[in-house]
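User: Can you write out an input/output pair for a complex, sequences first and structure second?

Assistant: Here is one pair. Inputs:
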Amino acid sequence: MQAWRQPGFWLPLMIVFLWGLAVLLIRQDTARETAFTLLMCVGLASSLNILLGYTGYVSFGHIVFFGLGGYTGFYFLSQHNWSLLASSLAGGGLSAGLAGLVGLAVLRLRGAYFALATIGINEAARAFVSNFEPFGGATGLFINFSAYEQYGGAGPALWTAFTFLWLITLIVLATSFLVKHSRFGLGLLAIREDEDAAMVMGVKAPQAKTIAYVISAFFPGMIGTLYFFKNGNVEPSDAFQLHMSIESLVMVMLGGQGTVLGPMVGAITYQGLRGYLLTSPIFKSLHLAVAGLILLLIVLFVPAGAVGWVRGRFPRWRRVLE
Amino acid sequence: MILQVKDITKRFGGLQALTEVSFDLPEGHILGLIGPNGAGKTTLFNVINGVYPPEAGRVIFRGQDITGLPPYEVARRGLARAHQVVRPLDDLTVQENVMVGACFGREKHSLSRATRLAGEVLAQVGLKERAGQLAGLLNVAQKKRLELARALAARPYLLLLDEVLAGLNPSEITAMIETIRAIREEGISILMIEHVMQAVMNVSDHIIVLDYGLLIARGTPEEVANNPQVIEAYLGDPQMTARLLAE
């Protein structure tokens, strides 16, 4: 596997790298906030794509890994004064562990049944956290302002969170490419196309699906920790928003499921559109309806998404647009 | 013996699909499996390669009991299968399809070795020019060859072929039979379900006959074609038998 020689590996990485670098150099708060939201979406959509795009399993409740992982990381950060790295690893680790346990049970289900089960998991996690005292129950957790001091104050702490998110997004994109272009990834693609035929060819589908689920859950847990660290608090209604799950699905489908670049393109496009809708007087309360409509249109007319469509139309670009 | 099937019984609810089916397949042989529609041939394949567990009986592959193992474990022990209803991985290229067989079959190749092996196997089945095409775009004959290529890329000891000749025209059948003979020359044993009588009579060393889930006859192609029970239960009319014998 010689990923570093392939343009398809470098293209998404270079875009995110240069973008983050530019934000760090400009050092403007608004640019950072915009980039934070976008990179978060890129990271979440790309993580979801490792399950949705490569194995073909639709997880409607994927935001549970963002929420529960974020809660866990924030708990260690705010209550036990762990470092940002250690607590986000704890958040990612918890999400990955949960995905491993859930996956062994739920990934036996196929199609719509799996999708429904994942919604149930998100709702169960929300109910659990709302009643779990160490996590502050329904009111959630707050960070003590003094905790920001080790990062040089609240302002610099936001820059630290941004830099961290930037690096994680780069790692997610690299992971996505490496998974897709590995032997393991070939097995996942075979499962996506025909799970029974894949098993007859020797693909250990139950294990492979679970590993894909674990990988796709790990990064949202880390990203959640950073997000709540940036916000300074976490509460159940913020952490387990089902509409964020749906929006990540729209991003993946819009850009192109099963491609490395697609979820990034979809995340940026969707967020741009969402920003426009939220500020326009006509659509401001309808943006989720528009998201639903987009999803419907993509599934009906361009199921491969933007990047997938270009790849199908112009095979020569395949090496660049992975 | 590369494969020993002992007293396999399989039921689906009230339907007795297989009743105490037993047979042996010596190494390097081609064994034909024939029988009317609904006789249980494909079900027998599904039991052998682990898609369905049987209610009773054992499947012994190269001396190991593989009864009830999941299909991927069976595949990794060197038993590959080409399906009756072709199942290409549509959105992957022809080459990637074959690489799945190579990567997850008996020899568990790395991606780069699988790429090379896929090239060789595609040349062997005559699909080399199609390597970069999406598998969903192949025609039926090509998809049948792709099924075969995927199975071969696993470097199996035993190959289960489920009606690989069905739907092919006469010249494609002749070419496919040549390919099957060449596979046997490499030392791979073959168990094949086939409805194209002339072909299966021609290519098989031995033939077994299933009817309503029961094994009603076994022997050389001539013996089976002359077996009164087979004529009665399967072939139906004596004229057909005469035709088969004349070939």
